[in-house]
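Bumping with the actual sequence this time:
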Amino acid sequence: MLSGRKQSLMLVINPTAGKNRARDNVFMLIDYFFTHGYHVTVFPTQAKGDACRYVAEFAPQYDALVCVGGDGTLNEAVTGLMFCDPEDRPRLGYIPAGTTNDFANTLGISSEMEQSAEQFCNGDAFRCDIGRFNGKYFTYVAAFGLFTEVSYETPQPLKNALGHAAYILEGVKSLTSIQSYHLKITCDGEEVEGDYIYGQISNSTSIAGIMDISRTGVQLDDGLFEVLVVRMPSNVIELNAIISSLMFQKVDDSPYIYFRRAKSVTVISETPLPWTLDGEAGGTFCYSQADIMPGAVTFNLASLPNEKNIPAQQTLPGAEPDTLPEAQEDTQSPET
């Protein structure tokens, strides 16, 4: 347990996350943190972009920052930290209250709120890489294409019941329904070109609650992205081979999947290409640039989770702060 004087804690909470589960547990969390050595100040979000602005403005005044919400809330909190000077960024805790909680799964954070609060209070520092994409930041994935859209849109009960089968049933109903993009992709100087139906630039073992690449040796503090793109199949046999390779994580061996680790990635598209960042709309671009920011954010984790094949912390330089983004759309919806 963190001990000594009472420390200041900034608690950023999205009240609508997880069908109001975050709101219903806020007093329990305040009590837990107070009894474990923290003075807590609560910052409830009311609109999209609030968490980012709160963190960018106030986080340097606190010893610790904990965000409560889904992956979108975490993305905003991390983005806010990236606009602070590296030496002023407090350690970060995450209490997942969304539906998918991809990055919490990767970090080994419990979906039970009191347990995740305990993990933070008993945790050690872990310096995690962060991605920058066309001037925005992401914690675990920038992605485009069919599989990403399907996996985020597939109803959660169907995911729970069928797992990978839901992925296939919802996304690959017919070969003719698959949209492809002609792309030129460069990973640390290595260039490939072709027609692709899906791509991800990630720093996570789990994408959208379905895509699992844990067996590829993902490390969250190695200064490298995992880049995975799927070629357009020309027939059902190739389509089935792609699905099999993804399900069994045989991405290195498939002629239809390009998989590399890289610090910097550029994607050039002949037509505007829509992206998602951490499961949220990330913009549509013909030219995209992604760069890794090594060790940019320090999480407090109960185990630096070696059990999930993630190495212990490394001492890495922080990223330079940027300028605060313009105010975003003034609406907020429940996170999934």
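The tokens above came from a reply further down the thread. The longest helix spans residues 71-82.
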